[in-house]
């Protein structure tokens, strides 16, 4: 595919080797304007904002991924395979499944279960286990300790359905000690594995599936600072 792509107006060299990817493009804009020095917008196609700037002297990009694995699949694939990106760190929201995981907790996704058929494209003779880069997981835990931010590390589930029709599905994942549910990590981890690159998911709990706990859409956009600062510090 030629560059720019149908989804990204950036030219070769406009995007850093490390990219932070929130689902919400407005969160990408917030991160760029709040944390990056001299951010330059490299993409506005479909309002999926992307910016490159520096953080403590290091060049970093931040770009929205959109909602769901098909959208994450497109953007992360292009970044890895067309723009020479080496590391993508998803920073997003998730719904807690366990009693000891609460709203605003930070979860580092070590692996991503999924109900998606995304892996079928690889025609594997079994079930693929999408996992994050160990080096990025270890570094994220170290940075969180340095910053004084408690984190949970474990398995998450990436679901294709936000409004699922099976009321028992969340209970089944909860039974397997999956920490939380989100919608993008599994596709990101698979694209990274296929491209020989690195990926990580850092999530902030925005609501609880089994308790009446949730924060507003505005708070999701602007108040996940601890998660963002861990990702920037890696």
UniProtKB/TrEMBL annotation:
Site (Important for catalytic activity): 220
Binding site for a purine D-ribonucleoside: 7, 182-184, 206-207
Enzyme class: transferase
Entry keyword DNA repair: no
Keyword annotations of the record: Glycosyltransferase, Transferase
Active site, per annotation: 207 (proton donor)
Residue span(s) of domain Nucleoside phosphorylase: 19-213
Subunit structure: Homohexamer; trimer of homodimers.
Described purpose of this protein according to its UniProt entry: Catalyzes the reversible phosphorolytic breakdown of the N-glycosidic bond in the beta-(deoxy)ribonucleoside molecules, with the formation of the corresponding free purine bases and pentose-1-phosphate.
Entry-linked PANTHER family: FI09636P-RELATED (PTHR43691:SF11), URIDINE PHOSPHORYLASE (PTHR43691)
Family to which the UniProt record says this protein belongs: Belongs to the PNP/UDP phosphorylase family.
HAMAP family documented for this protein: Pur_nucleosid_phosp (MF_01627)
Protein name: Purine nucleoside phosphorylase DeoD-type
Organism for this UniProt entry: Blautia wexlerae
Taxonomic lineage from the root: Bacteria, Bacillati, Bacillota, Clostridia, Lachnospirales
